[in-house]
Design a protein that fits this description.
With 299 residues, this protein is an alpha/beta fold. It contains ten helices and eleven strands. The chain has helices spanning 3-8, 12-40, 63-75, 95-100, 123-129, 132-141, 160-171, 245-256, 280-286, 288-294; strands at residues 53-59, 82-88, 107-111, 146-149, 155-156, 175-184, 187-191, 194-195, 214-215, 222-224, 260-270. Strands 1, 2, 3, 4, 5, 6, 7, 10 and 11 form a nine-stranded mixed sheet that branches. α2 (12-40) packs across α8 (245-256) and α5 packs antiparallel against α9.
Length: 299
């Protein structure tokens, strides 16, 4: 079933819950952010050059690719003062064993005890909301002053953390992202991000506001730790727009009023997983049954 068809199948319950969520987020989150800024903004004004960064990876039964891509990419960073939090969404493969074999005190692994039913288990919904529970758990475990996310199949440039940290500090930004180099069907291109005030994020917007900030891809997210007061939304799949968990959260961060910057440099790479030709939602839909089987919920 394509994404356009799934939209036609949105139930009254889906519409009600997503509308109530949107109303509640719009009401609460700007207030929460202002309060957290009041409490913590001064902590970022002291010119600290070596703050602890919490890097987190949500993952589910992808131990091999996790060890081939994301983990080595993080450990190879020029910036060394970080903790790496890997949260397994009740992994049943060798993920935990592989992680524990790495003798680096900066790495922590937590495996969620149960993977119960969360949403209708289609490949599309797994793409929309799959990492939400593990990502929210990782945010609870983070101890750093700054937070960065990378997925298990992503890789970073070696200076990823250094570049984004210094950029955020120099601009007094709370949330920054950057450029990604994507590979699809054998072609690599630098994927430019979309403006926040544009039809991409808001279909009610008729034209792009060039003064609004660009919002980059997940693997380039870098933000102040107090922004974790804004959580991933498990009901994102119910929406009619911005249905992917990261896009939903990112747009809410913008609407809450965060100070946002965009670094015009490639800081991450997004390439197909083994056996696949493209990335993102298209990769999930191209291997729909495999993804349904892989992400099956506990009975």
């Amino acid at each position: 079933m394509g994404m356009e068809e799934s939209l036609k199948r949105r139930t009254l319950t889906d519409k009600l819950i997503s509308n109530l969520d949107s109303f509640w987020f719009a009401l609460k989150e700007p207030i929460v952010l202002r309060f957290m800024r009041f409490l913590h903004d001064h902590e970022y004004q002291n010119g600290e050059t070596d703050p602890l960064i919490s890097v987190y990876i949500p993952t589910y039964n992808r131990g091999k690719i996790l060890m081939e891509r994301a983990v080595p990419s993080v450990l190879a960073q020029t910036y060394k003062n970080f903790e790496l939090i890997i949260v397994g969404d009740h992994c049943t493969d060798d993920t935990e064993k592989l992680v524990l074999e790495i003798k680096d005190p900066r790495i922590r692994f937590y495996n969620i005890p149960k993977r119960g039913y969360r949403y209708p288990p289609t490949a599309e919904n797994h793409w929309f909301a799959g990492p939400v529970v593990a990502a929210n758990k990782a945010l609870k475990l983070a101890q750093g002053k700054w937070i960065a996310r990378v997925d298990d199949d992503d890789t970073w440039t070696p200076d990823h953390l250094e570049l984004l940290l210094r950029f955020a500090q120099k601009g007094n930004y709370e949330y920054v992202t950057g450029l990604v180099e994507r590979e699809s069907y054998g072609k690599r291109v630098v994927w430019d991000a979309k403006r926040a005030d544009s039809p991409y994020f808001n279909p009610g917007t008729k034209k792009v506001n060039e003064n609004s900030p660009k919002l980059g891809a997940t693997q380039t997210w870098f933000y102040r730790a107090y922004l974790r007061c804004l959580k991933y939304n498990i009901n994102c799949w119910r929406k009619s727009w911005n249905r992917v968990n990261d896009i939903d959260l990112q747009y809410r961060i913008y609407k809450a009023g965060a100070r946002i910057g965009f670094l015009e440099k490639v800081v991450a790479y997004l390439i197909p997983r083994p056996g696949e030709q493209t990335v993102g939602a298209e990769a999930y839909l191209n291997s729909e049954q495999e993804k349904v089987n892989h992400f099956k919920f506990d009975s």
